[in-house]
């Protein structure tokens, strides 16, 4: 089968097309015939998700069940499935059956592929740890990214008011159509004053930091009393930042990271079921539809990668078979 592999190189990652045997599902696994998959920043940032040796690319997919491993019950061959996986940039991919989700009927293959990673991360940030409540203020740095757009959509569905930052005024205008309340044009800092003015000098209740270390201190300054800060990415490639301990102490802040890198499979399975309960109804009802910037054919996956790296998109870049 055709499979695009992530190949690490100095300070970057490249994609290499290989012809490899179709994998066989092992104990607890499903084999998925991939219909669509998506690019995600995490597996392409050196020092974050990039491999130390070559491996199949693509961390999420949607497709039909083509094989069922031992010990797996409750699934049938040919059934529509979406979820986190290994090798989504391949004709066939393996998925832990505990990670598998059934997409609502109204959700297309492209949309189904754009849901699992970003929206489960967003559930982790906004619900499981961020405890976002209706009427609270949410600030999203790098709001036009895949995670940023999903956080905006989910935040509005939860009844929050949202401030978003982006280096592009045009991208922020697009996000206004999704309910963005306040847009701040900046590629880094400079959002403290607009956020304080918007909230009556109170500050925001939850910050989703996609940008990284260069804005970390300003994120803390912008938080209200008992505010929460979710660190989910570092587009700026800056992995170190100072912490204002006085603000942390006096404002009773809560800082947390969002990652599945060290979670055990059983722990990841629990988060999938929580997402299924809390968020999947939004997609079934049409209250949330994944924002897809562009769709590329599978054979044009390198072009999709180049477009993704250009940062021209708002939302997700999808690869369709």
Descriptive account of the structure:
The protein is α/β, with parallel strands linked by helices and 321 residues long. The protein has two domains: 2-115 and 290-320, Medium-chain alcohol dehydrogenases, catalytic domain (Quinone Oxidoreductase, Chain A, domain 1, Alpha-Beta Complex); 119-257, Medium-chain alcohol dehydrogenases, catalytic domain (Quinone Oxidoreductase, Chain A, domain 1, Alpha-Beta Complex), CATH 3.90.180.10. The chain contains ten helices and 15 strands. The protein has helices spanning 109-113, 116-129, 146-157, 169-176, 192-198, 216-222, 245-250, 265-278, 280-285, 301-309; strands spanning 2-9, 12-19, 29-38, 55-56, 60-68, 80-84, 92-96, 137-141, 161-166, 182-185, 204-209, 223-231, 254-257, 292-297, 316-320. Strands 3, 5, 6, 7, 14 and 15 form a six-stranded mixed sheet that branches. Helix 10 (301-309) links the parallel strand 14 and strand 15. Helix 5 (192-198) runs parallel beside helix 6 (216-222). It is globular. The two termini are 13 Å apart.
């Amino acid at each position: 089968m055709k499979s695009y592999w992530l190949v690490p190189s100095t300070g970057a990652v490249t994609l290499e097309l290989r012809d490899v045997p179709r994998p066989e599902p092992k104990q607890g696994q499903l084999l998925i015939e991939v219909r669509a998959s998506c690019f995600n920043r995490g597996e392409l940032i050196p020092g974050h998700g990039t491999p130390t040796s070559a491996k199949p690319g693509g961390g999420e997919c949607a497709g039909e069940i083509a094989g069922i491993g031992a010990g797996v019950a409750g699934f049938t061959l040919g059934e529509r499935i979406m979820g986190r996986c290994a090798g989504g940039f391949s004709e066939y991919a393996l998925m832990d059956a505990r990670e598998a989700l059934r997409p609502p009927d109204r959700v297309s293959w492209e949309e189904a592929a754009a849901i699992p990673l970003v929206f489960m991360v967003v559930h982790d940030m906004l619900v499981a740890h961020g405890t976002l409540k209706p009427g609270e203020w949410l600030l999203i740095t790098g709001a036009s990214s895949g995670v940023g757009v999903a956080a905006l959509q989910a935040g509005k569905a939860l009844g929050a008011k949202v401030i978003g930052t982006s280096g592009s005024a045009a991208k922020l205008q697009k996000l206004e159509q999704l309910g963005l309340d306040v847009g701040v044009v900046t590629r880094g800092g400079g959002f403290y004053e607009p956020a304080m003015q918007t909230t009556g000098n109170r500050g925001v209740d939850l910050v989703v930091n996609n940008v990284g270390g260069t804005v970390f201190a300003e994120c803390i300054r912008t938080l209200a009393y008992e505010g929460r800060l979710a660190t989910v990415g570092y587009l700026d490639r800056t992995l170190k930042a100072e912490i204002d301990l006085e603000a942390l102490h006096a404002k009773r802040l809560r800082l947390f990271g969002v990652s599945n890198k060290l979670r055990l499979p059983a722990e990841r399975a629990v988060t999938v079921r929580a997402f299924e309960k809390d968020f999947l109804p939004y997609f079934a009802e049409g209250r949330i539809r994944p924002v897809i910037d562009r769709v590329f054919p599978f054979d044009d996956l390198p072009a999709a990668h180049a477009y993704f790296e250009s940062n021209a998109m708002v939302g997700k870049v999808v690869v369709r078979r």
